[in-house]
Specification:
single chain, 182 residues, alpha/beta, seven-stranded mixed beta sheet, three-stranded mixed beta sheet, 4 helices, 23% helix, 27% strand, globular
Length: 182
């Protein structure tokens, strides 16, 4: 995709995501800053923040678990390289602790694909599997939403016993629900 294509896709994705009632009524959203070829998230993060939503962003810990920090705008992000992996944009401010995610009304999850059942294929590091397990242990049920390109919604992805389905996938062309609104 060209830079213009990426901008247009990011804008369309943000517009579709913002139509979700789960995000419209959320006071706190746990999200992420897209990397590489992932659909862009900054337009969505900035709009949520402008609406007064508390936006939490992950900070990768050495054991692949996630701590959280508050998104205060693009100037509040720091590029951090973790070992031999790609550099991530993480919040530079105060660390709020791994359990902070349990206060989220919605959690935006990165992924490589989502299938017709709502099962998400991640990158294999297990960071978001830990987040989902933490939410389950805490007995909270935020809306779980994946942001993808249209071609990344597939018939079936591999599944392991700990995997949990998401509520919805948002693509530039629309929203597909797998479970009722959270």
């Amino acid at each position: 995709m060209t830079a213009d294509d990426l901008r247009e896709t990011s804008a369309a994705l943000a517009a579709r995501a913002l139509e979700l009632p789960e995000l419209a009524r959320a006071g706190t959203v746990a999200a992420y800053v897209s990397v590489g070829s992932e659909p862009g998230t900054l337009a969505l993060l900035d709009t949520l923040r402008a609406r007064g939503v508390r936006v939490l962003l992950p900070v990768l810990l050495p054991d692949n678990d996630l701590d959280w920090g508050r998104y205060e705008g693009q100037d509040s992000l720091a590029r951090v390289r973790h070992g031999g992996r790609m550099a991530l944009s993480e919040p530079a401010g105060e660390r709020l602790g791994p359990d902070t995610v349990t206060a989220a009304d919605a959690v935006l999850l990165p992924g490589l694909a989502v299938d017709a059942r709502g099962m998400r294929l991640g990158r294999g590091g297990g960071s978001y599997d830990r987040v989902l397990a933490r939410l389950e242990r805490a007995g909270v049920r935020p809306a779980l939403v994946v942001l993808l390109y249209d071609a990344e919604v597939v018939e079936r992805v591999p599944e392991e016993p700990h995997d949990r389905p998401v509520h919805a996938v948002v693509t530039p062309s629309g929203v597909r629900r797998f479970r009722p609104e959270a």
